[in-house]
Amino acid sequence: xxxxxxxxxxxxxxxxxxxAAQPLVIETSVYDVEVSVVTPFGSFVDNAVVQVRKLDNSIxxxxxxxxxxxxxxxxxxxxxxxxxISWKGFTIDSKWYEASLDDNVVVIxxxxxxxxKVVGERGQxxxxxxxxxxxxxxxxxxxxDGTVEFLLPFGNYVIKICYGNVCESKSVSVxxxxxxxxxxxxxxxxxxxxxxxxxxxxxIILIIVLLAIIVALYIALSEYAVWRRKKIAAALKPV
Length: 239
Known about the structure:
Elements: H1 2-21, E1 30-38, E2 49-53, E3 59-63, E4 69-76, E5 79-87, E6 90-91, E7 97-100, E8 105-107, E9 111-119, E10 130-133, E11 139-141, E12 147-153, E13 155-163, E14 166-174, E15 179-185, E16 190-193, E17 196-198, H2 200-236
Parallel strand pairs: 1-8, 9-15
Antiparallel strand pairs: 1-4, 2-3, 2-5, 5-6, 5-7, 9-12, 10-11, 10-13, 13-14, 16-17
C-alpha cells in the first residue's frame, strides 16, 4: 500500500515538473487593425493628420497613406476610434469614428463636395476655365462640360474663376456629406479659341463693324467705277 502511494506521489511530482517546464501561454484579444479613411463620396482621405484612440483611452497621432489607410498595432479587442485633425491644409477636427476588425472603413461625414459649373451666355459649358477656392490651396480647370469639383470640409467659401481677361467670383456653402452645386456665367457667347471669346454684345458690334466696312468698300468701289468711266469717256471724246 505504501509502495502504491509512493508511486502515485512520484508520478504527480513528475507531471508537475513537466508542466512547470512548459512555457506559460496567455491568450489575449489584441489585434493589428488596418483602418481605411474615405470621404462620403468614396475617395481616399490621403495624407491626413489623424488621432487614434484605443479602449484604454491612450491616444496616438499618425497620418493616412496615399490610399487613406492607417495600421494600428496591438489593439485590445480589435476596436479603435479615429479622428481627422487636418487634411489638405484644412483644419477638420472631426468627431471620433469607431473602427474594428469587422468594420474597418471610416467615412468622414464632415467633408462635402463643391461642384462648380462655368457656362456662357448661351448656357454652354466652357472648358479650360481656371477655378480657385480663395484662401485655400485648391484650384483646378473645368472639363469639357464646364465643371470642376473640390472636396472641402463643411463651411462657406468663395469661388473665383478667370477666363482670358474676365474674372468672376461667387460664394458657395458646402455641407458635410452633400454635393453643393453652383453655376457661374461668363459673358461668353462665342469661343474663337483658347481663352479667346466674344460676348453677345461684342458679336453684334463686330457684325456692325464688318457690315460698315463692307458698305464702305462698296461705296468706294462704286465711286471708283464712276470716276473710271468718266475718265475713259473723256479720253475717248474727240478733240
